[in-house]
Automatic annotation (TrEMBL):
Underlying gene: dapF
Protein name: Diaminopimelate epimerase
Pfam families named in the record: DAP_epimerase
A single MF term (Gene Ontology): diaminopimelate epimerase activity
EC number: 5.1.1.7
């Protein structure tokens, strides 16, 4: 290894991340550096950054950043990729362990087949609200999965939506912004979803978004618990919603590792 900053690249259902191992918490991860890393032309390209930190007390901590550099609470696909990194780096044994996030500790199970199950904590439906896409209104439910979501179950085929721009939302309901999901019901327990993520744009998957989608679908049909598969642009995730918590299962892939050029890193402040 040379002197550059170590990185890995990974994805969960094509929601992709740069992983930065930083056990001693010495990296100065500025907004400018996150933006440059995530840029698909002048950087490595990713939807977000996962910095891997070992606190003095407690489990390994996932310091998650959106591609625009914003620091937010939780990332369901990210936590699976983070878990895969910890296992492959030999920092935890395959099986069950905890990961710290800004939304609290999350129990994960890294399976032998490469998939990871995450206990996501409760998915709380907190009310109803409306998203707009090119003048069309979509009603949905506000769902708190540690981070904020507006999940809209709709008969409009999600493939037809133009999500290049952020959907409109009510800032009084979502003062810190929101991730917006559009959801089609394909059959009992089978959903299709597209998502526009706060701080990123449209992504090919959002783990917390799939949990919000299933919680909203169940809520709208008068059910408190249930399970569903959710087809996203980048694959399929499985979600189980229980009274007190929800679980998310899906793939987690690491595909590259290397080091960032130190002078490039230093040129960004
Ligand atoms: N892609 C993530 C969610 C990342 C955070 C989100 N953009 C936010 O700002 O809350 C996931 O898989 O959950």
């Amino acid at each position: 290894m040379g002197m550059g900053v170590e990185f890995l690249k990974g994805h969960g259902t094509e929601n992709d991340f740069v992983v930065l191992p930083d056990p001693d918490g010495v990296l100065d991860l500025t907004e400018a550096r996150v933006r440059a890393l995530c840029d698909r032309r002048r950087g490595l390209g990713a939807d977000g950054v996962l910095r891997v930190v070992r606190p003095d007390m407690g489990p390994w901590f996932m310091d998650y950043r959106n591609a625009d550099g914003s620091i937010v609470e939780m990332c369901g696909n990210g936590v699976r990729v983070f878990a895969r990194y910890l296992v492959e780096a030999g920092l935890v044994p395959t099986g069950e362990f905890e990961i710290g996030t800004r939304a609290g500790r999350r129990q994960v199970v890294a399976h032998e087949d490469g998939t990871v199950t995450v206990d996501m904590g409760p998915a709380r439906v907190t009310g109803a609200s409306t998203a707009s896409v090119r003048g069309a209104a979509f009603t949905g439910f506000a769902v708190d999965v540690g981070n904020p979501h507006l999940a809209c179950v709709t008969d409009t085929p999600v493939a037809e939506l133009d999500l290049d721009d952020a959907p409109g939302h009510d800032p009084a309901v979502f003062p810190r912004g929101v991730n917006v999901e559009f959801v089609n019901v394909l059959g009992d327990g089978a959903l299709r979803m597209r998502v526009h993520e706060r701080g990123v744009g449209e992504t090919r998957s959002c783990g917390t978004g799939t949990v919000a989608a299933v919680a909203a679908w169940l809520h709208g049909t008068g059910q408190r618990t249930g399970k569903a598969t959710v087809d996203v642009l980048g694959g399929q995730l499985s979600v189980v919603v229980e009274e007190e918590t929800a679980t998310l299962t899906g793939p987690a892939v690491l595909l590259a590792r290397g080091e960032l050029d130190q002078s490039w890193w230093d040129s960004l402040t």
